[in-house]
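Example with several molecule types.
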Amino acid sequence: MSDNKTPEKKLPPTHDSHELSRRVLEEDQVDQDQLRSKLSGRFSEIVTEFKQTVICTDRDNVIGALEILRSDPELDYKMITDITVVDNMRRTDFDPERRFTVVHIVYSVTHKKRVRLETNLSEGSPRIPTASGVYKGAAWIEREAYDMFGVEFEGHADLRRVLMPDYYEHFVLRKDYPLTGRGERDNFVRAEEVE
Amino acid sequence: MGLEQLIPSLAGEGFFTTQINKVIGWARKNSLWPYPFGTACCAIEMMSTLNSRYDLSRFGAEVIRFSPRQSDLIIVSGRVTLKMMPVLSQIYAQVGEPKWVISMGACASTGGVFNTYPQIQGVDQFIPVDVYVPGCPPRPESLIDGVLKIQQIIDGQAERGDFTRPTVEAN
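Resulting structure tokens for the full complex:
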């Protein structure tokens, strides 16, 4: 056998695969004391969940808190990322007074920070003021949240369904609505019978 | 058939005799104009079938028409939701007779993995389907096989001289 040595392999420069997730984590590191002083009286508590900052508020104060978050130059949360709803019905500690949790996620493009607002709504009246007065783009997102969960956004200019057809009777992402529906998908007429 | 052999003056002149139904059937099966009802990933495979690598025009079915008035073969490729089903029914009604339908892929044929509230569990519940192409999504070869099956159906219809759609019993 010859003494041929395999040439040493040159490794590519180390790639930091966690860079993005670390950057996302940094965006969630928010000065909570600053938030507490700016939003005084507009929230019930500010907690850290899964390394993210959550402002717990109620439906009388949520729009006021969003206005401060958006307009204060030190906070400057100019972008609404998402408005969504959680149905707490299947939770073990379920309380009808806290059936739905509306979640507003806002992001500051200048400071690269993100916070989440949570508002609990009761089963009897799932209503919350619209955020479309503060963030114009919220109107679309609220329509989707209404379509899926039936949460009414008071003051919304055009609260109609987006994804489901207008005649649909149920709100499909509520936990008491079965995954396979209630037979709506089978209720069409055969094309030959229409004529 | 074979008449040209009985008439000596026609022999060797390049004539042959046949039935008018077979001529019509031959023309129809080799000039299928598909309507692409592509709603999901199966539509990508359908586009691939039409492109030069698989070349559906070898079978005369490359003239994609986006108007149901001009087409005679609907290829339902992809998921059909309950908001889309009335649209598909109307398009089916707008296609002139004779017409054929291919249900391409698992979603169009059975609902596929989407056993959920908006998903139609097989378009054959509401429109008649001639050929089901299995797969998720089917390869272009499968769709070509489906088109060839449609051609066989047209051959059979030409043999019977009856191009009306066989009535499917409503379920």
